[in-house]
């Protein structure tokens, strides 16, 4: 039964090991084909994950859960990984050596994320978190002759190590004051307390620091733009989609199971931090000229939107965050796929090099434009409904606490600001002309992935029901109104 | 039969999807498809209008599918007198818009797809009975407009020193800012009412007076951005000036009316207490619209800027009509939305006709054009007369209704506002007559010798159609006023009185 719970996680890890072993003895000649092969395998695993049923028990002495919430995230990671692998295959010409290891590392990283979706204990949380973070250190600096890539890796390493240190330190405080690391036991214990000990509060704040780093929340967001810009594009995409979702899975799990009784500590703090994150991310994106850097700031901004949903502390908010993460994955992957196509052809990822993209490659231009509009939250794209739900969650909460109206107002301002810089990208694609009018080649797998993402964005924007229902089911894991 | 309305609304969107599948190398086929789609949509709307039960005041042709049960939201369409009138407007203007779009010769496929998406966004907003889809369609209209202006627009250099990129970005940001502001108010209404169904919200939900006051402010100023309410109007003339002809027509003709429609459909019936609270503010802002924008129009030299400011000024009459909160005033506002929409579309299409040939729309540069293009000249004179509120045109009827409504409202403020508004007509006539006299009459300038008039019926048709609509409604206004009045009376004004009595009853009960 325990194996049933971890079968998806184990599947990825085993597959990663097989790639490494086979490549050591009989190196793969065609790196692109290998990438597509792994992508197809992960796609099968993604399809298979819908056959796995949630289980109400815990596993491994209460450390591991396979509830609807965990499954929602596992499916999200598997789906995202498929597209990231297609992207990596397209990108593999730029990687000098160790392409097979690149794919294997992506698989290991995803294994860590799949475990993170299920953690029910601080110890397992830390182990899985490190698995994800350490693979990202390597992946971010994979283009070892590019200074920017090395800088990205180093920056991520130093700040990541620091934040991991904070997390462990915080876990130690929590364990020291309560005597447990298990979320369920912790929640039961805390609900008996009238006030929490000071040392415990301190521990909570330290853990939040570590998690805040993963989701790029102010004031732990400094790394995001640099790392996003410097890392290889598929790695950036996986950071933006997978790592962020994993971070939010943890934040939701930790705050709404283990630390829910202590919401008076972190609730008001999150309101303030959400507002700060919204403003920092969206204002910082305005002057950017590099599209990956812009998406780095935009990812900070989106962390802010989702924090709004968490700060609202209601079932609507959790459902909204889950929906948002699902559609955000599609949207961001679409954007990064388009960026890989453009960089392969032009060798540049500056926004001015996107000029005339609408003529040079109508499909890539359209995909990038739709992704930007979805990020900005314009109907009929999925980002619109994501934001709609988040705002609704905040407004619902605001009926009992007027501070949330201020938060909604700041969120509204952020939407307008963000539209400005997203349209800046749109302007380059459609309004500006370029001297170089040569068409941009798009391979068949890339074309399929782009159409899939676009269909997903428009489909979920118009007919939101399937993902909304799934998100609501997953959100029921937590005992919220 | 019930889903005819749904088909009329969604048909252009379906056509846009088919156009997406067409090869870009066949612009003729895509254009034909667009004309067909808007034409069918117009015919269906006309058929619905002919079948419309004029004795009823509620929603008709209701058709809905459950969409998101967890949100109590359904894709539901239905029309009453108010939305019927405005749907007719969308049908006429979008059809004429596609007809005059033959001047577009670059990236036609994208152009028609965006135009059709814009049409659906607007007509969807008018026809929907669901709060969520109202906002959905409302926001959906903004981005096509950004691209239409940015990709096919033109903005001659002038004192304003702006580019079309600036104009279109400003427009988009202003409209989005208004939309998110309105969203906060709409969500507050949703959480009190617990349903997205506008009809149920109107009949079953009573919102606390305090909430009403601030929620009304959110809706008023949020929708006010799009209705170009002073001082949020600055995006509007610039946006018209930069837009291609058909986009200007859609924009001035119908898109702008969405803002006023939002106030009439949602803010007035759902928040009657808030409406009373803010009525005076609306009236004052309306006067600013009429006089300030009229004054600004006096100083403009670019045809499109003249009409742009004139349209901001006209929205002032609409807002004044809304502020009266009585049957004749609000009905006048709705009829004026229709009349002004047709008139603005006509004017912009005429400007587009000669600008396409002259590449110059600076009024002092043009002179004696009527000698070369008499048909366009005659149409322009008629349009200007309609705009100045001459009897015989629909604008006259509706403006008189607004004046009567405002005067009979009774308070001193509204009497002063009425005087301002009547004075505004004189201002309107001044700049419009000047512009027409200067550019169409006077000594003929030889450099305009190459101008060609609209000679074939095909070319004349859109202008004739728009003029015919203006004159028909002008001579027989009851065709629309009957249905508008009964809906306004039952949904807005009765609600006002009923709520007034309830509050009195509550107070006496205390």
Task: Name some characteristics of this structure.
heterodimer, A: 481 residues, mainly alpha, 19 helices, 2 strands, 2% strand, B: 510 residues
What's the short story on this structure?
The complex is a heterodimer of chains A (481) and B (510). Chain A is mainly alpha-helical and 481 residues long.
Description:
The complex is a heterodimer of chains A (481) and B (510). With 481 residues, chain A is mostly helical. Chain A has helices spanning 2-25, 31-49, 68-91, 99-116, 122-140, 147-178, 183-190, 198-214, 223-230, 233-258, 263-285, 291-311, 315-346, 357-360, 362-376, 382-398, 403-431, 444-462, 465-475, and strands spanning 55-59, 64-66. Chain A is built from 19 helices and 2 strands. Chain A has a two-stranded antiparallel sheet. In chain A, α1 packs antiparallel against α4 (99-116), α12 (291-311) packs antiparallel against α17 and α13 (315-346) runs antiparallel to α15. In chain B, 76% of the residues lie in helices and 3% in strands. Chain B is globular. Chain B contains 20 helices and 2 strands. The A-B interface holds A 358-359, 362, 373, 378-380, 384, 388, 391-392, 395-396, 399, 405, 408-409, 412, 415-416, 419-420, 423, 426-427, 430-431, 463-465, 468-469, 472 and B 24, 67-71, 107, 110, 132, 135-137, 139-140, 142-143, 146-147, 150-151, 165, 169, 172-173, 176-177, 180-181, 183-184, 187-188, 190-191.
Going across the major beta sheet of chain A, what is the strand order?
1-2
Number of strands of chain A: 2
Biggest interface, residues from each chain: A-B, 33 and 34 residues
Number of domains of chain A: 2
- End-to-end span of chain A in angstroms? 32 Å
Strand content of chain A: under 5%
Query: Strand pairing plus helix content of chain B: what structural class?
Result: mainly alpha
* Rg of chain A, nearest Å: 21 Å
Strand content of chain B: under 5%
- Gyration radius of chain B, rounded: 22 Å
Q: What structural class do helix, strand and pairing data of chain A support?
A: mainly alpha
In quaternary terms, these chains amount to heterodimer
The amount of helix of chain B comes to over 70%
Task: Give the beta-strand count of chain B.
Answer: 2
Query: Number of helix segments of chain B?
Result: 20
What best-fitting shape of chain A do the alpha-carbon axes yield? globular
Mean of residue pLDDT of chain A?
91
Tell me the series of helices and strands of chain B, N- to C-terminal: HHEEHHHHHHHHHHHHHHHHHH
In the predicted model, the low-confidence regions of chain B spanning at least 5 consecutive residues are 504-510
Query: Into which percent range does the helicity of residues of chain A fall?
Result: over 70%
């Amino acid at each position: 039964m325990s194996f049933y719970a971890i079968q998806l996680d184990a599947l990825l890890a085993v597959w990663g090991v097989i790639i490494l072993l086979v490549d050591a003895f009989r190196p793969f000649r065609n790196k692109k084909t290998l990438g597509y092969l792994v992508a197809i395998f992960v796609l099968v695993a993604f399809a298979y994950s819908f056959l796995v049923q949630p289980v109400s028990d815990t596993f491994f002495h209460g450390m591991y859960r396979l509830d609807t919430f965990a499954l929602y995230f596992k499916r999200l990671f598997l789906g995202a990984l498929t597209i990231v692998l297609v992207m990596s295959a397209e990108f593999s010409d730029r990687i000098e050596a160790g392409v097979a290891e690149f794919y294997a590392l992506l698989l290991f990283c995803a294994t860590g994320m799949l475990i993170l979706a299920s953690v029910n204990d601080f110890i397992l949380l830390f182990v899985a978190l490190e698995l994800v973070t350490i693979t990202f250190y390597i992946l971010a600096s994979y283009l070892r002759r590019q200074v920017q890539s090395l800088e990205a890796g180093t920056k991520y390493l130093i700040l990541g190590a620091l934040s991991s240190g904070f997390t462990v330190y915080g876990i130690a405080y929590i364990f020291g004051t309560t005597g447990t690391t298990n979320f369920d036991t912790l929640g039961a214990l805390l609900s008996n307390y009238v006030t929490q000990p000071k040392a415990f509060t301190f521990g909570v704040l330290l853990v939040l620091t570590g998690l805040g780093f993963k989701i790029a929340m102010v004031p732990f967001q400094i790394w995001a733009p640099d790392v996003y810009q410097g890392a290889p594009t598929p790695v950036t995409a996986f950071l933006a989609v997978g790592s962020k979702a994993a971070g939010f899975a943890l934040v939701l799990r930790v705050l709404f199971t283990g630390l829910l009784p202590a919401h008076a500590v972190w609730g008001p703090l999150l309101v303030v931090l959400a507002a700060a994150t919204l403003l920092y991310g969206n204002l910082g994106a305005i002057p950017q000229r590099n599209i990956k850097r812009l998406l780095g700031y935009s990812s900070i901004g989106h962390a802010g939107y989702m924090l709004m949903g968490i700060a609202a502390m209601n079932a609507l908010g959790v459902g909204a965050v889950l929906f948002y993460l699902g559609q955000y994955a599609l949207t961001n992957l679409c954007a990064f796929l388009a960026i890989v196509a453009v960089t392969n052809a032009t060798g540049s990822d500056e926004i001015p090099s996107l000029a005339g993209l609408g003529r040079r490659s109508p499909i890539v231009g359209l995909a990038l434009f739709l992704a930007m509009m979805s990020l900005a939250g314009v109907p009929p794209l999925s980002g619109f409904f994501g934001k709609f739900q988040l705002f609704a969650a905040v407004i619902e909460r605001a009926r009992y606490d007027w501070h949330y109206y201020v938060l909604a107002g700041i969120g509204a301002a952020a939407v307008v600001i963000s539209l400005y810089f997203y349209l800046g990208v749109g302007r380059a694609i459609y309004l500006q002309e370029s001297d170089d009018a040569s068409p941009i080649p798009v391979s068949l797998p890339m074309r399929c992935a782009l159409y899939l993402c676009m269909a997903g964005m428009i489909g979920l924007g118009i007919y939101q029901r399937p993902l909304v229902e799934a998100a609501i089911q997953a959100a029921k894991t937590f005992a919220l109104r | 039969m019930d889903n005819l309305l749904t088909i009329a609304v969604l048909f252009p969107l379906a056509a846009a999807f088919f156009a997406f599948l067409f090869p870009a190398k066949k612009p003729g086929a895509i254009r034909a498809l667009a004309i067909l789609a808007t034409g069918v949509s117009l015919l269906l709307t006309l058929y619905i209008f002919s079948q419309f039960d004029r004795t009823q005041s509620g929603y008709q042709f209701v058709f809905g599918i459950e969409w998101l049960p967890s949100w109590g939201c359904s894709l539901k369409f239905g029309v009453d007198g108010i939305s019927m009138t405005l749907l007719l407007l969308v049908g006429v203007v979008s059809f004429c818009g596609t007809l005059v779009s033959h001047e577009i010769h670059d990236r036609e496929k994208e152009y028609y797809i965006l135009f059709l998406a814009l049409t659906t966004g607007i007509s969807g907003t008018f026809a929907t009975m669901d709060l969520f889809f109202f906002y959905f369609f409302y926001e959906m209209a903004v981005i096509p407009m950004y691209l239409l202006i940015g990709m096919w627009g033109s903005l001659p250099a002038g004192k304003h020193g702006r580019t079309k990129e600036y104009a279109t970005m400003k427009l988009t940001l202003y409209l989005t800012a208004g939309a998110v502001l309105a969203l906060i108010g709409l969500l507050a209404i949703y959480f009190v009412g617990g349903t997205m169904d506008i009809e149920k919200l109107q009949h079953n939900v009573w919102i606390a007076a305090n909430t009403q006051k601030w929620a009304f402010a959110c809706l008023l100023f949020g929708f006010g951005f799009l209705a170009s309410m002073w001082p949020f109007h600055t995006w509007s003339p610039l946006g018209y000036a930069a837009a291609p002809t058909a986009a200007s027509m859609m924009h001035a003709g119908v898109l702008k009316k969405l803002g006023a429609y939002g106030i009439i459909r949602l803010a007035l019936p759902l928040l009657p207490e808030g409406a009373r609270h803010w009525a005076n503010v609306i009236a004052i802002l309306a006067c600013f619209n009429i006089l300030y924008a009229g004054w600004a129009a006096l100083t403009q030299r670019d045809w499109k800027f003249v009409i742009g400011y004139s349209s901001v000024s006209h929205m002032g009459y609409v807002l004044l009509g809304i502020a009266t909160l009585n049957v004749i005033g609000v009905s006048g506002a709705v009829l004026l939305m229709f009349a002004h929409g047709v008139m603005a579309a006509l004017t912009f299409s005429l400007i587009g006709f000669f600008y396409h040939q002259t590449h110059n729309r600076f009024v002092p540069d043009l002179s004696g054009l009527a000698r070369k293009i008499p048909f366009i000249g005659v149409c322009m004179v008629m349009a200007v007369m309609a705009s100045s509120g001459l009897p015989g045109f629909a604008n006259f009827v509706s403006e008189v209704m607004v004046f009567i409504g405002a005067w009979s409202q009774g308070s001193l403020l509204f009497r002063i506002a009425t005087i301002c508004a009547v004075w505004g007509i004189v201002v309107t006539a001044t700049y419009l007559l000047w512009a027409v006299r200067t550019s169409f009459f006077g000594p003929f300038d030889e450099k305009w010798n190459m101008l060609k008039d609209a000679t074939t019926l095909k070319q004349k048709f859109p202008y004739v159609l728009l003029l015919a609509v203006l004159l028909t409604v002008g001579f027989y206004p009851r065709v629309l006023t009957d249905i508008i009045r009964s809906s306004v009376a039952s949904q807005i004004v009765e609600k006002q009185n009923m709520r007034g009595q309830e509050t009195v009853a509550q107070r006496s009960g205390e």
